[in-house]
Amino acid sequence: EKGTYPHYMLKEIDEQPLVIRRLIQKYQDENGELTIDNEIVQAMNEADRIYIIACGTSYHAGLVGKQFIEKWANIPVEVHIASEFSYNMPLLSEKPLFIYISQSGETADSRAVLVRTKELGYKALTITNVPGSTLSREADYTLLLHAGPEIAVASTKAYTAQLAVLAILAVVTAKAKGLDVTIDLVKELGIVANAMETLCDAKGEMEAIVREYLATTRNCFFIGRAVDFYVCLEGALKLKEISYIQAEGFAGGELKHGTIALIENGTPVIALATQEHVNLSIRGNVKEVVARGANPCIISMKGLETEEDRYVIPAVHPMLTPLVSVVPLQLIAYYAALHRGCDVDKPRNLAKSVTVE
Ligand code: M6R
Predict the structure, then answer these.
(1) Does the record's keyword annotation contain Ribonucleoprotein (predicted)?
(2) What number is the ipTM of this complex?
(3) Residue 55, ligand 1, Cβ within 6 A
(4) C-alpha to C-alpha distance for 221 and 229, rounded to whole angstroms
């Protein structure tokens, strides 16, 4: 039930800190250590390459998950859009493990790949919010998102839960391998949950950003580098699916290779700047678009901020910024849709789970 909330989407955005705290508990053992079914950890460590298969928002979570698994657990990862993988299967490694990420566990495009990889004899792990869903039943292993029912068509809390579960999976796998992972993930996810709360309390700020940048615009660009780029893809998907504003996420460095031609006077460009190693370069990209008339909205992170920034998110561990930087983008999409009189929870032409290929 949505209770006093006007829309499920807003309720689900607000539930994110709680979901992260719940996940920490669910994946903790009696000693407070993060833990994952031994069979799953073993399957991870036996694989010479991991293939993540997903669609939409879950695909965007997979892109961030690749960073966690490669950087912490030191296993190569490929992330594929399920529908493309079906008819364009890459050369597989000798010992692949397939991870299917799906909030609903019912997405037909992902299921088609799962059926195929099972036929080929490969092991599969499903990360889903729905126990007993098709993708969960048909895979060898399941990890649950524990996010509670997600009703709004636009996925919010499932995305951040997917990121948290992927981070836990990566760190537990790394530790089982004896790798020296220095992150205290329980503590850092706690900091993430607090930061999410701060952002959920900043709704007025996000509404103001929408009024200032998106009131009448036909399009909007999101730019970022490194992991911020993946969050930009998600921010753009959110905005387009519920507000019908044409939105695209771009890698900062790619702008000059074509996209910059689209910048006109007043074009809103939302830039994420949460990564220290690319902070200067993304700010350089903002200057480039401003020089062509863009209306820039920089969202940065505490410690990296400058005076020109429109909003500064609280500092969190640099690997975990997507869990937090996505929240303002979810809220921006929400208010843009609301102000345009769109049906926030049930956007046109879309269904909550896509059960056709
Ligand atoms: O249930 P799934 O995670 O498999 O769904 C995948 C996509 O259909 C889904 O994420 C879709 O992109 C959302 N509407 C995005 O908000």
Answers:
(1) no
(2) 0.98
(3) yes
(4) 11
